[in-house]
Amino acid sequence: MFPRQKMSLSVDDTVKKTLKKNPDLSAQLILKEKAEMHYKAGIVSMSQSQFDNAISCFSKAILLVSHQTQYYVQRAEAYLHLCDFQSAALDYKCACRIEPQTHAYPQRLAFIYYLQGQCLFDLGKFMEALESFTNAAELKPDYQPYHMRSMACLTALGRYFDCLRLVNNWLEMKDPSADLFILRARLHHQLNQARLDDGSSFEATRRKLFSSKIELYDSQMTNCYHDLRSALTSKPSSLEALELLKMLKEAAEECHQNAVEKALKGDLSAALRKINCALEYNPRRAQYHLFRGTLYRRLKDFTAAIEDLAHAFEFCGVGEESGQGIAEDDSEDLEDAQTQLVLTYNDFAMHCFSRRLYKEATLLLNKAIEKHRDASELFVNRGDCFLKQGEWTFALADYEQAEEMDPDNTIIWLRCAVIYNKLGLHCYESKNYLEAADKFSAAINYDPGVAQYYANRAKAFCKMGKMEGAKEDAISVRVLEPNNEQASVLPLLLSLFPGFSLNVIMTCSTAQSVKDLLKNKIEAFDLAASKMSRIDQMALVKEGSISQSSSQAGPEHKMKPSGTIETMQSKLVAENQSLNQAVKRVLQQRQSLQHDGPCLAPAHLDSEEHIAHKQPYVWRKFGSFGLNL
Fold first, then answer.
1. What are the structural domain ranges in the chain?
2. Which of 7, 229, 264, 375 has the most CB atoms around its CB within 10 Å?
């Protein structure tokens, strides 16, 4: 017993000696002891739910010893019981600063921010709640519920673009899921609804505040459609995605029907706006691209038309995958898309031709012929382009190809005649008189009513010594152009009949036989031309009168320009005035686009009444601009 007491006295003496040597250490021990006392008192108050008293005790302890983490943690918990989230958050921040290696404190702080944000959200203070949820998400970025609450605040504030940015970040950081795609699709739909609800005033504000996002905003429904398809790819049985996709397709079809009605009334601009809306809702429908491509062609926006028709080709027959909603079969539009693309290339070529861009027009016609080699009009047009560029051989090859397809077309005959005459003059200048005569003969066979062809051949015959042929051709010139007093024609005729007057020459038996033969040839040509006029076969532009009188024919033979082309929409309007509602419904389903294409193999009509009732598509032709042939 005594040694133990002696030892105790020895320890006390040691402590006293230490405190005398270091008085600061004595103060620290006293403060620590007092702080620990207040801390224990606070714990007791916490157990008795006396949170105010507990906070007071913990505060005294912190005042005495400010570097003890547990004091801050316990005071923060007391603040939480009193719903003082801001004070609790400050205490946990201090704890995180003192012990940064402890991961439990940041997570608890994030939860406090979440609780604070939820209370603020319930009070309708969305901006303050957004700040709290954002702080929680920053402390725990992998925990999605915090981000979802931030999005709820943004949605309540109408900040859909910020919501969209959040979802985009999730899709980039994580493996995409069907739910995320559906969520983004709904955001796109909400943005579109905001545009429709707010109208033009919203549009003006949007362009002022979100000028960098205009393109994104204008394609919200397209993005919505693609997100739903992505969701169905991840989860084909998603009923929510299927329902939304069905809704989009129904809205697209309604816009398409409205576009058809506008087009039937001739309001192409309004029809274009409607079909643009339809394509926003369903951008993979070939029929919609085909319809818009046709409208662009009518509005002479050929580049846009070609792009849309290319999309129609891409989506024709593709439809929707099984399990992704309503099955769509656009394969019946493939032929229409082919036809419209050919017509667009042709019209674009005409546009270039009118501006003397002959090479560009030739390239466009090359593309049209690649897609459709059975239309003689395309070869005629390309021949006209070659003719303007002085490529006689290529022009003749195209005209002859067109003639093989349509051997009775006098429009092609006229062009072939011009080319052969040009080639004959070239051979004549090269002193190749035999070949020149053959070329002039070919020109005459195609177009027997042009006096200059006979005059040129007569000169070639004279050079060859074929005087009888030269005499007949010289008489033919006089018959076709009795008032022609050209110095090169009349002297030639008199020199071939020396010693005879002009009256005697024109009344001789040779002249009479020439007149009869020439009359038969011209009548046969006029008969063929009149048949073409009655049948009204395909032509890029109605050429006017095919036959040329002897007084109008000449070496610089020109086609007459035609009147304005009637648009397809105006034709359909005229038809709808006499048809019932059933026919109109058929037109809306696709008949309008089918009738807009060319009749590649026109049927020969048997009666004038049938011709008047059903007008075939009238191709446009470069002759409408007047070729200086």
1. 286-403+565-600+611-629, 408-560
2. 375
DSSP 371-435: H----HHHHHHHHHHHHHTT-HHHHHHHHHHHHHH-TT-HHHHHHHHHHHHHHHHHHHHTT-HHH
DSSP secondary-structure letter at 598? -
List pLDDT tens digits, range 3-46: 333 333 343 454 455 445 555 556 678 888 888 898 899 999 98
The Cα–Cα gap between 327 and 337 comes to 20
How high is the mean pLDDT of the chain? 74
Question: What CATH number matches the domain at 286-403+565-600+611-629, 1.25.40.10, 1.20.1290.10, 1.10.3720.10, 3.40.140.10?
Answer: 1.25.40.10
Tell which residue, 593, 589, 592, has the closest CA to residue 575. Answer: 592
- Model pLDDT for residues 98-127, shown as the tens digit of each residue: 998 888 999 999 999 999 999 998 898 989
Which range (369-373, 474-478, 527-531, 576-580) has the least confidence? 576-580
Q: Nearest Cα to 560, choosing from 488, 485, 627, 469?
A: 627
Q: Would you say the CATH fold of 408-560 matches that of 286-403+565-600+611-629? A: yes
pLDDT above 50 for 240: yes
Is 455 a residue whose pLDDT tops 50?
Answer: yes
Q: At what angle do helices 392-405 and 410-429 cross, to 10 degrees?
A: 150
- Look up residue 320 and give its two tokens: 């929707």
Return d(Cα 551, Cα 97) in angstroms, integer: 107
Cα gap 134→130, rounded to integer Å: 6
* Cα–Cα dist 596/615, whole Å: 12
CA distance 288 to 309: 10
Q: What is the 3-state secondary structure (H, E, C) of 148-160?
A: HHHHHHHHHCCCH
Residues above pLDDT 90, as percent of the chain? 20
The mean per-residue pLDDT over the stretch 190-207 comes to 54
Q: What is the CATH number of domain 408-560?
A: 1.25.40.10
pLDDT for the residue numbered 540: 35
Q: How far is CA 120 from CA 147, 154, 256, 429, 528, in A?
A: 16, 14, 46, 98, 90
Q: In Å, what is the CA distance from 347 to each residue of 297, 298, 320, 362?
A: 8, 9, 33, 12
User: Tokens 């600061």 — which residue?
Assistant: 24
Predicted confidence (pLDDT) per residue in 134-158, tens digit: 889 888 887 878 878 888 888 888 7
